[in-house]
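User: Second chain of the day. Same drill as before.
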Amino acid sequence: MKKLLILLLLSFFLPGKSQKVELKTVTDSSQVFKGEIAGVPVTLQLHYDGIPDCNLYQHFVDGWYYYDKYQKKIPLTGLYDYGKLSLYNFGAKHQQVSKQFKEKINSPQDVEKVAEIVKGFNPKEIILFGYNQTKENPISGSFYLENKGKTQPAKLFTGNEMIYRYNNYLTLPNNKRINTFDIINLYGGNQLISYVSGEKGNRVLLYFEHSSNLNACGRCGASEGEKGYRILYFTKDWNYKRYEEFLTESCLENIYDTPQTKSKDGKTIQYKIKKSDSSPAHTLTVDIRNASVIKSK
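Assistant: Same format as last time:
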């Protein structure tokens, strides 16, 4: 009984694991979506299946969907193209035909002509999402069934139908969690450096390194990427407010060969940033202990 009482007191006074700030990196190549076809609830599971050329914003997807009431999986093959999802079911010989379909698409130009190319394979069902290119939740779409010969409305209950995702999950006190994929950008590459808490709010300092462009054939696609620091600002109760970004290297901004100086205790790093495409030369002082970055001339 005495040991139990001591354990209870320790658990009360010592900060629990939930009070820490932690970062976990998870790369997803598969997503499950809920939606509707003609007002009937459906579930889709789609996974990344390679790129036609060199652009991660344009990739093949494979998977299935079913009507929630019956849960009979119907196979799907298609393309993700900058927020647009084109999904096809080719009937009894789906696997065989889907392989032939993919072999016809080898470039961004082919991706643009997918609606024309797929006609030669006589899809039995066509599901399209995101073609109106507006940010909305749910995402509107359409469903075409060959033997019915008509198009019906479809919905995807998400604000983002991207399949391949670089998730960086920040676990925060008060059982809260955010994903930098949702609040910063799609590129991931964040590392947790430090964090501080105070009466006026909380700050989290991240260091990041990520590619400049998910299109490897586009500008800066083959570069060493973007590097720098981010400060995330939170309320006292760890509600997210905003973030600031400070580049130390960048292909997109032409920032290279940045000299840096570390303090003897390793708690401060100073970067001399040269003139870039969008800002004059300046100095960044990173204070790890205080989770802050000061920009000065």
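The CA atoms of residues 90 and 123 lie 5 Å apart.

User: Great, on to the next one.
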